[in-house]
Amino acid sequence: MTIKYDDMFSVCAMGMKRSVIRELLKLTRNPEIISFAGGLPDPHTFPVKEISDISRDILDSRGALALQYGPTEGEEPLRQQLVRFMAGDGMTVPMEDIMVTTGSQQGLDIVGKILIDPGDVVIVELPSYLGGLQAFSQYHPEFVGIPQDDDGMQMEILEEKLVELTKAGKRIKFIYVVPDFQNPSGVTLSKDRRVRLLELAAQYNLLIVEDSPYRALRFEGEAPPTIYSTDKDGRTMYLSTFSKTFCPGFRMGWIVAPPKIMNRIVMAKQAIDLCCPSFTQLITAEYMSRGRMPAQLAMIVDLYKVKRNAMLEQLAKYMPPTVTWTRPEGGLFLWIRLPEHIDSEIIFKQAIEKKVAYVIGSAFYCDGGGKNTLRINFSFASLDQITEGVKRLADLFNSVI
Amino acid sequence: MTIKYDDMFSVCAMGMKRSVIRELLKLTRNPEIISFAGGLPDPHTFPVKEISDISRDILDSRGALALQYGPTEGEEPLRQQLVRFMAGDGMTVPMEDIMVTTGSQQGLDIVGKILIDPGDVVIVELPSYLGGLQAFSQYHPEFVGIPQDDDGMQMEILEEKLVELTKAGKRIKFIYVVPDFQNPSGVTLSKDRRVRLLELAAQYNLLIVEDSPYRALRFEGEAPPTIYSTDKDGRTMYLSTFSKTFCPGFRMGWIVAPPKIMNRIVMAKQAIDLCCPSFTQLITAEYMSRGRMPAQLAMIVDLYKVKRNAMLEQLAKYMPPTVTWTRPEGGLFLWIRLPEHIDSEIIFKQAIEKKVAYVIGSAFYCDGGGKNTLRINFSFASLDQITEGVKRLADLFNSVI
């Protein structure tokens, strides 16, 4: 008999969409296309040899442990290293408040799962990280977007919205921010705004989800403290990952949360996949305990800074005067704004014809806005590709503006 | 200000419970305790040296790929090997119908997510795999349990229940079975019942979730065909894992589903964690492509058969006559039934005092039954421990019966 699968799916499944980015990436597989679309790190930065040596050493000395099931919370040697790693960034985190996740994406899924009931308000940046929107969407929140400027989410607008939502009797659960070199905009939330964000969260009794995968990749300027370290109330969950700084192929992320929230996070993780792979956790812990992470980070910062500089230089040289862009102090992305009448989705096909790719900005807007914006990545392409790719983009924009 | 975290959690989070098994396992960490409680494979079976060699080779030859993000569906070399692996078990599966998961547990979570709306009926075995119950519970189904006998789920009772549930206007979504050497009972669903299960599923328009992590570990007798291979309608999802046959420390599982369901599974995976680690996927694929899996499986089968035999022998020798147990033809577990008036949870403390551990049977009953039952594992303990541990258990039972 014929099965009508659509009758079988849950409401959650029927609401799912394929990732715009993942689908666009398929169009960019032609090797002639210079792709600024993905968010991939430069594979030349992967410490292949060290990982190979450490893999052998771990298997020689702790094979039975490395290949067995591990604790739901993650392997202790790794969590201990994470305590130290975050201490180096001004964060005092007890090991018990850390759980290892499959990338920070899994942390976002779990946060959504344990916090969002359908209709709850989740406050996000405009634009916001697409993977965060996707993870939370599964739990059917009402997204409320707060525009950013060059200092990140605008606190006056946030306050207005909080007043308005509270008056309307909405149940607001948390504020989701990517405060450092945001994906997609490249913008960093200023120190003052971090303080104000915490004040407003306290006033309205909200949690904060601080998702910071790029924080260690600062090229210049002084890092504002993490929201987590500024928070004295225990209302901040902090998510990070080594996908951009060590290697994505381990899918090594972590989440930090106050004990009562961590308790639920661990229960969710048990039901979701029991635990992360021990093998890659122990390799990562050993890499850190051998003191290799600082040099690794410094090398990546140097490389990406050169790439960002090349991109900024080319943009300044070739872009039409009505096109503007952000100047990120770190991270992987910058953000381009076209004149209002240009829709980056409509001209995407022409970009592919010109053999250059980006991600359309509207993908990052929970309210469907941002049609005249786009995200470009500077970590993956070579310097030659950056030079040539920006020229192609400028050609395109010149032809449509 | 003080945060009332409990006001923040979703309905899903408030319904979560810590895994009974994981919590009991904490009591069994005392090295003097002989634990039959966990479901761990014997670490002596892990192919440590081969994994070490292959890790080095993969990093030498494909380091940039192995450490980069991979496809949501999983690495093609692994999916191709899985096509061959399942073909060797009589299953014809196109690669496109396979997605790699973090253990089969993640497959169960995704199945629950894409199929279950609150109140939907999910039919399970009595007893059933605890991890399956936990994964599905997150989506608030109504569980209906069907008792097993020595040939697995009883089809007459299933039919009665289907009539009854349909009359009551319930929306039944799927039947969840662990048909081979079931966890926890050790029982295998007979060939005839597999056919009947598919007939009933067709009649009532239901999907089937076939979760078979132990299937390759058959000590004796002939394997009935998988439900998946018998199904001509495309109503069966098949889940498996290498956690019991290769190593759990890679968390290497997979799910097979018809294209329309796989489409939703892939979308869910994107939102959940983007993709599984490439590194461990490529190592596993290479291990398979070098033709090592058959010898690995044969070695494990030989070892676990000896352990099962030892356990059966000791049980026959020491157990009081009112205690009965299953005789699994493979897998990792067997199932003990005590006289009705004995509650395995109440006597668990005494077991720990006698320095032996098991899992209480009621943990596996969605209806809270099975109080006089318990699960014991024979894969992890040594032969000496099996001999001594069964004596201790028999002592305990003799003292309370």
Write the layout of secondary structure elements.
2 copies of one chain form a homodimer.
Chain A: H1 11-14, H2 20-27, E1 34-35, H3 48-66, H4 76-87, E2 98-102, H5 103-115, E3 121-126, H6 130-137, E4 142-149, E5 152-153, H7 155-167, E6 172-177, H8 191-203, E7 207-211, H9 227-230, E8 236-241, E9 252-256, H10 259-273, H11 278-289, H12 293-318, E10 324-325, E11 333-337, H13 348-353, E12 356-357, E13 359-360, E14 373-377, H14 383-400
Parallel strand pairs in A: 1-12, 3-4, 3-6, 6-7, 7-8
Antiparallel strand pairs in A: 2-9, 4-5, 8-9, 10-11, 11-14, 13-14
Short description:
Two copies of one chain form a homodimer. The first copy, chain A, has helices at 11-14, 20-27, 48-66, 76-87, 103-115, 130-137, 155-167, 191-203, 227-230, 259-273, 278-289, 293-318, 348-353, 383-400; strands at 34-35, 98-102, 121-126, 142-149, 152-153, 172-177, 207-211, 236-241, 252-256, 324-325, 333-337, 356-357, 359-360, 373-377.
Computed over alpha carbons, the radius of gyration of chain A is 21 Å
Low-confidence stretches of chain A: none
Number of β-strand runs of chain A: 14
List the helices and strands of chain A in order: HHEHHEHEHEEHEHEHEEHHHEEHEEEH
Instruction: Decide which structural class fits the backbone of chain A.
Output: alpha/beta
In angstroms, what separates the terminal alpha carbons of chain A? 55 Å
Give the fraction of residues assigned to helices of chain A: 40-55%
Q: Biggest interface between protein chains, with counts per chain?
A: A-B, 87 and 87 residues
Question: Major sheet of chain A: size, sense and barrel closure?
Answer: 8 strands, mixed
